[in-house]
Specification:
Radius of gyration: 23 Å
Helix content: 25-40%
Structural class: alpha+beta
Length: about 450
């Protein structure tokens, strides 16, 4: 496929840029029209690549793009999943380029060419690889599998509408494997395939004290300050060993055996390089586990946002009426998002002092999952990546969450196969998101080879 990529390089970039320019931010209501614009553009790209059909399907939220190419009803079918919604670009002042005006430019550290812009990696760049690999295989008469595409517009907000839509269209979505590129590799020198991802429970908490903001001179020291109370409550959620203190939080966590931990430890990890990249002096986390284990096989709790009182320019001597925080808990397989959310809410309300009122509102969530590394699809993916990168990929566990994939696994009865080509340097969800051309094109090659190496019929 290398020659095909070289011959079509500029066209590929023009097409990718056409979807990167659309600010399809699912978290912000004003971008609702952009969701449809991006979905329509993806339909066009699928049809131009050779899909038999591609269209927009309504959900209770943002639309789903579905397309397919049926080569042989008896052949194995690959369901390609991706998402076209992106994270908000804020803080805008931190971007070196305009987030929705993609550009091709060098990486400041290495000089390698990269695409810069929101969605360059997550997930527009990675789902685009599948469209082009499909185009190549079909155009060269090499495609022996049926291929279905499902691109959703709500992954970044927890895919609230997709499970119901999948249940309603189970027959249409029937396939043998769900192929996904929405994850990262350990590094370009150590390619990897994720064999599991963590789940998520994300909540917002509100602590209310007095019925209105108060003068801090008249009432300070006599009335509870909700911000201080909230900080004290949050501080109590993790103990000195880095463990979450919510009762029952670890009840269903499966401890990995020594041999399983040893297998995952095959992935090389440079702690100094890790700290230097993040600009920190020390790492921190659950006692008894490595940094890689803390982000792959262990659950955690983090405060993702906190606010209250006056935060504008200058001083305002106010004792606030309310304080708020957004809290995420990353979960490992066997932990259930709904159960953990209930445990958290019960505990958080129980530890609140009588001087405040507490509300806990679930925002989004989903369960984690594991996939077997012994499957024929995993082996085909491993062989494909080995050929492109010159080294066998190692199995890894992803620390992030793609909440809907556990639902796909349960509803459709198929395992996800996570062929992700992002790198940590891509800074997804942050300003200056980018995607190395080497990874973009290497992903296309690897996906095309996967179709070549996975038998179209079960042996």
């Amino acid at each position: 496929m290398k020659q095909y990529i070289e011959q079509n390089r500029q066209r590929f970039l023009d097409e990718l840029f056409s979807i990167l320019r659309i600010p399809s931010v699912s978290a912000q209501a004003e971008h609702r029209p952009d969701m449809y614009a991006c979905a329509e553009r993806l339909c066009t790209l699928l049809l131009e690549a050779g899909a038999d059909k591609a269209g927009i399907w309504e959900t209770d939220g943002n639309p789903v793009v579905f397309g397919e190419k049926i080569i042989d009803p008896k052949a194995r079918t690959v369901l390609v999943y991706g998402h076209y919604d992106v994270q908000p670009a804020e803080p805008l002042e931190k971007w070196r380029t305009e987030p929705f005006e993609p550009v091709l430019g060098p990486d400041p550290a290495t000089g390698e060419e990269a695409v810069w812009g929101r969605g360059a990696n997550d997930d527009k760049g990675q789902l685009f690889m599948h469209i082009k690999a499909f185009e190549y295989m079909l155009g060269k008469s090499l495609l022996r599998h049926n291929v279905k595409f499902i691109f959703e517009g709500e992954e970044e907000i927890g895919s609230p509408s997709l499970p119901a839509w999948i249940k309603k269209h189970k027959k249409m979505l029937a396939a043998d494997i769900c192929l996904v590129s929405d994850t990262t590799m350990i590094s370009e020198k150590v390619p990897s395939i994720n064999c599991g991802m963590r789940g998520l429970s994300y909540l917002e908490v509100k602590v209310t004290g007095p019925n209105k903001d108060l003068h801090s001179g008249h009432y300070g020291g006599a009335v509870a300050n909700p911000i201080q109370v909230l900080c004290e409550m949050i501080s109590s959620l993790i103990d000195s060993d880095g463990r979450v203190t919510v009762p029952g939080f670890y009840d269903k966590v499966v401890e990995l055996s020594r041999s399983e931990r040893k297998m995952l430890a095959r992935a090389p990890f440079d702690l100094k390089e890790y700290k230097d990249f993040l600009g920190i002096r020390e790492v921190r986390g659950e006692k008894g586990y490595t940094t890689g284990e803390r982000t792959g096989i262990r659950p955690c709790l983090d405060v993702c946002g906190i606010w209250g009182g006056y935060t504008g320019e200058g001083a305002k001597t106010v004792l606030p009426s309310e304080a708020h925080a957004k809290i995420s808990m990353r979960l490992v397989p066997n932990q259930r998002s709904a159960e953990i959310s209930e445990l958290f809410a019960k505990h958080f309300k129980a530890i609140a002092p009588r001087c405040v009122k507490v509300e806990v509102t679930p925002c989004e969530g989903g369960d984690g999952f594991l996939i077997p590394v012994s499957s024929s699809a995993y082996k085909a993916a491993s062989r494909a990546i080995s050929e492109v990168y010159g080294i066998e990929p190692v199995p890894s566990r992803g620390g992030g969450s793609i909440a809907v994939l556990a639902e796909v696994q349960k509803i459709l009865g198929m395992d996800p196969l996570l062929m992700g080509f992002g790198l940590e340097r891509d800074t997804i969800h942050s300003p200056n998101e980018s995607y190395l051309l080497r990874q973009l094109f290497g992903g296309m090659e690897s996906i095309a080879l996967f179709y070549s190496y996975w038998e179209p019929t079960a042996l």
